[in-house]
Structure formats: structure tokens, C-alpha cells
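Input record (one chain):
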Amino acid sequence: MDESSPDRRAVVVEDDADMRMLLVRTLQRHGFDVAEAGTGADGLRLARAHVPDLVTLDLNLPDLDGTEVCRRLREFSNAYVVMITGRADEIDELTGLQIGADDYISKPFSPRTVQARIEAMFRRPRPGMPQSMPGSPAAPDAAPGARADVASPANPTIPAGAGVPDGRPIVHGSLVVDVDARLVTLDGQELTLTRTEFDLLALMIGSPRRVWTREMLLRSVWGDGWATDEHLVEVHVGNLRRKLGDRGKNPRFIRTVRGVGYGFVTP
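The corresponding structure, as predicted from the sequence alone:
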């Protein structure tokens, strides 16, 4: 058990008492101050009261469906959300990701799996917060000879605003991305993006000539824990494209490079 003072807060929303205890103990062991709830309504109340950094959310709750809880949570919280379910239908996963969940874990799972996935999430950039999970080791330095601006297994994370002078907003036609303020405007109108959508957009627009494979995007935005979950990229890029108004064969911003991944449309 980690005896240090908790410096992060989590809310576990799970109606199964045994599963809830497993999640609570796993998170406490890694430095989280954990509040727990057995219903969606109680989970939302606790999220408002505790302002958590992380919420684990069961999809099959006795009152509100987990996707509805996630939708309401996103109205007031920017916490990382991990959806947990015993359902096998992929549609549950797609729906959860579309409304703002950061990851999805199917039952049964091990505490080690939960730890690894959450550690990967907390390595993602987030203003005003350290980038590692409490008690986790620091990320290793890049391998000798690895370039700082190239995504690779040795150097998985590329700063979203890399190469942008003085932290100024990045302008791409009518699209403006302010990386420091995490603000996006299109045709003069502010867009509402989830954290994951913003991270993907900032990463790609920061290197508009680069073609990004799905694996590169996974490692850069999600971390090494998602190395085989390429459908995560497809779902989030699809959501981002809809918000950017990219439809049909002639997108304005994000193009599909067949057999490879994604890139930005050259203005």
C-alpha cells in the first residue's frame, strides 16, 4: 500500500460490491484518494463534490446507463473517464468513446491492467497537472540518437505544439488551434472538443506535412498501453472530423492515407 499522502482524486462508480472494492483498493494503492458510488446518480453527485482527476464508470448501473452518466459528467468535468463493462457488444464501446470516455476496459480484468491503462492516460499532457500517475516511475529518456520530433517506440510522445514559435496559435486556413489555451476555432466559431480530440488535432496540426500511422497516434496520444487498440484512433478521429465538418471524399482538414493512417490536407 502506498503510504504517501494521496495527491489525486478518483470516483469509482460500480454497482457490484466486489468489483467496486477491487477498483477502490487498486487506485488507493497507487496514491488516489477514492470516493465510491453504487449508482449513476450518486456517482455524479460525488464527481461534483470531489472534482476528481479520474472516474471509473460501469456501463450497467441500476439507475442510469453508464453512457448517460458519462454524457452528464462531461457537462461539468474534464476528468479522465474509464468505462468498465461486462458487455461484449462493440457498439457499447463506440458509444462510450463518442460521448467523451478516454478508455474502455472489459470485465474480467486484472488490477495490473487497470494500473497500466491509467498510467498511460496520466502521461498525456494536461494543463496544471504532472504527467505521471502517483507512485509510478518516470518515463525513460529517449534512446540515443532518437530525434525529438519523430514518433517512434523509443520516443512515443511528441509535444503538440512542437515547432510553433513563442506558443502562438497554429493557423491552418480557417482553423485556429491555440495549444497553450487548448482552444480551437473554425470559421471564427469556437469548437467544443473532448480532451482526446484536442490532443489528436494539436498533434497533427503541429506537424501538418507528416503522415501519422494509427500506431504513432496511439503511442503519442494514449501511450504505450494502447499499442494494439487502433480502433480507438479511428473512433476519435471520426468524431473529430465530424466536428471539423470533414465529410465525403474531399475533406477540408484531415485526410485518410489509404493503408497508412491520417494526415492534414495541404492548404
